[in-house]
């Protein structure tokens, strides 16, 4: 077919019902996906290999002298904090939002001992490089577990801890999750698609209610699994699942010694690997109304804010109310 004929065919196809642009495919470090703010890179050596951590560093027009560090969850990136970054900078906060190693626009090492301590140390090294001292540490989901570990490691260097629907509030292995090998996690992750992401997020993140505004974040993740680095992305994801399941932070909550705010969507039911748990125990997992209250009781002096109608991601399902609660909570 000649080029003019091909162009005409595509033009006609684009006007036909059901036409859609090809699904995007991104590189292993999310090459091709644009973030809403300039992306910077922190290059460092860890576990005898050079790595780079992508991060956002967004400054306010009228600074209040405080910095908030936003730590993303397992199926999230620094970019998914866009609404919170705009709200926080509008309130005077400098905001730093990194992509952790193994995620999004950061390195995907083929061999790396992923631990929450290691990710906390990486984040601490980034903040030292930026000259940031005593920030407010805000973590969501897996980032909530990381935030807790950061506060445990560096209690004198954290002004305040905020955990948003953190996982690790219960020990899934102790509650019935059987041992899962890295190869099993890897094979499960290779099956990731836009449809599977959307179905999971509808059920857990958004309390059964899907909105079109969530779709860009689905395509962000699905594009990684359509791209040339699919295997590297899936392998690091498997390593991270193993880290999450084998390193629950719940047992260390009484040791947290910084002011803590818990923000919990009450319709969350997250429990990684729940489908592999025996049916008679499955329904007991991911009960966030109970888990949030238990965490608030275990962490000395913690304050709990509940979002009755939100699932795992209240910052995305109710952004205005969430941002107001966050800014009020860290302003105390």
From TrEMBL:
Keywords: Signal
PANTHER family: HYDROLASE, PUTATIVE (AFU_ORTHOLOGUE AFUA_2G14860)-RELATED, MONOACYLGLYCEROL LIPASE
Species lineage: Bacteria, Pseudomonadati, Pseudomonadota, Alphaproteobacteria, Hyphomicrobiales
Pfam families: Abhydrolase_1
InterPro entries: AB_hydrolase_1 (IPR000073), AB_hydrolase_fold (IPR029058), AB_hydrolase_sf (IPR050266), Epox_hydrolase-like (IPR000639)
Protein name stated in the entry: Pimeloyl-ACP methyl ester carboxylesterase
Signal peptide stretch: 1-20
Domain of life: Bacteria
Keyword Signal among record annotations: yes
UniProt key word Iron: no
Species in which this protein is naturally found: Methylobacterium aerolatum
Domain AB hydrolase-1: 69-319
């Amino acid at each position: 077919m000649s080029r003019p004929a091909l162009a005409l065919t595509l033009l006609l196809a684009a006007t036909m019902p059901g036409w859609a642009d090809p699904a995007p495919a991104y590189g292993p470090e999310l090459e091709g996906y644009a973030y809403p703010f300039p992306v910077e890179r922190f290059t460092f050596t860890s576990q005898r290999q050079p790595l780079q951590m992508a991060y956002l560093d967004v400054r306010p027009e009228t600074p209040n002298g405080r910095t908030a560090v936003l730590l993303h969850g397992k199926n999230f990136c620094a970019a998914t904090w866009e609404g919170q970054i705009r709200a926080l900078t509008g309130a005077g906060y400098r905001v730093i939002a990194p992509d952790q190693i193994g995620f999004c626009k950061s390195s995907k090492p083929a061999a790396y001992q992923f631990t929450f301590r290691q990710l906390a140390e990486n984040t601490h090294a980034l903040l030292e490089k930026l000259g940031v001292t005593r920030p407010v540490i805000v973590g969501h989901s897996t980032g909530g577990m990381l935030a807790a570990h950061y506060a445990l490691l560096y209690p004198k260097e954290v002004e305040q801890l905020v955990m948003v629907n953190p996982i690790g509030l219960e020990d899934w292995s102790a509650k019935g999750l059987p041992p899962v090998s890295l190869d099993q996690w890897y094979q499960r992750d290779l099956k990731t698609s836009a449809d599977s992401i959307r179905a999971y997020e509808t059920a857990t993140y958004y309390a059964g209610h899907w909105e079109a505004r969530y779709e860009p974040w689905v395509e962000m993740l699905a594009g990684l699994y359509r791209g040339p680095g699919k295997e590297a992305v899936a392998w690091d994801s498997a390593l991270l699942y193993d880290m999450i399941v084998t390193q629950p932070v719940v047992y260390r909550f009484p040791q947290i010694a910084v002011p803590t705010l818990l923000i919990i969507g009450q319709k969350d039911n997250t429990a990684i690997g729940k489908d592999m748990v025996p049916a008679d125990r499955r329904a007991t997992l991911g009960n966030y109304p109970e888990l949030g209250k238990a965490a608030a009781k275990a962490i000395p002096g913690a304050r709990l804010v509940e979002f009755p109608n939100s699932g795992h991601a209240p910052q995305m399902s109710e952004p205005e109310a969430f941002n107001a609660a966050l800014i009020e909570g860290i302003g105390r």
